[in-house]
Amino acid sequence: MYETLYEKIVDGLVNDGYIVLDNALDASLAKELLREAKSRNDFKKAGISTKGSRDENRRRDKICWLDEAGSKAQQEYLEFANGLREHINRALFMGIKRYEAHFAKYEAGDFYEKHLDAFKNSKNRVVTTVFYLNDSWSEADGGELVIYDKDDRKLRELLPLQNRLVVFLSEAFPHEVLPAKKERYSIAGWFRVDEVFV
Ligand code: OGA
Ligand code: MN
Fold it and tell me: 85, 129 in Cβ contact below 8 A?
């Protein structure tokens, strides 16, 4: 079903290391995921490491993890990701074992400082996905995802528009979320080469 999309993503990863796709999935799936994210009340403060309260200064979003046993919309999203996993493994021999993803909610003023999703040679998260859910968003609302290259040059500044999908090599692109001026929803996900949580 998503074969053409998978091919585009693989081409993007090979040629540039990242790709931005608008109207990526079913429009109705993006809408349903937004509805679900808005209605959930189990978002928890996200942590970066074990550094405790210092995280607040680096990251202010709240998250809740997607689950294969969750809603139909979650299952559909995870099926898309699993198909992508198989496609990437077949095309690029990356040996991805699994995918994990969470809803993220940024309230007005929330941000995520510049970071990498994987440390070099740590062999865990290898490909990042971010899928945006917001149905009305303009430049005045802030909350841009800013992607940098290895030399810290700004590559892209992206609004979190509904059904926009961003995929990039986790070790290669520092990125940040600028302060959002209103509630901002996304699904951040990672393809991992390890079997279980460490
Ligand atoms: C992350 C992240 C970006 C976004 O959760 O690691 O970088 O735009 N999210 O939500
Ligand atoms: Mn990130």
Answer: no
Order of strands across the sheet that contains 154-158: 112-115, 175-177, 145-148, 154-158
How far is Cα 136 from Cα 91, in angstroms, rounded to an integer? 36
For residue 157, the CA-to-ligand 2 centroid distance in Å is 14
- 137-155 confidence digits (pLDDT tens): 999 999 999 999 999 999 9
**Nearest Cα residue to 120 out of 169, 168, 171, 167:** 171
Q: pLDDT per residue over 27-39, tens digit each?
A: 999 999 999 999 9
Distance CA 67, CA 77 (A): 10
Tell me the CA–centroid distance for residue 93 and ligand 2, in Å.
23
Cβ neighbors of 96 (< 8 A, separation 6 or more) are: 85, 88, 89, 126, 127, 191, 192, 193
- Beta-carbon neighbours within 5 Å of ion ligand 2: 117
pTM value is: 0.94
Domains, the chain, in order of start with CATH, read 3-47+57-192 (2.60.120.620)
Q: Please name the residues in contact with 85: beta carbons below 8 A apart, sequence gap of 6 or more.
A: 96, 98, 99, 191
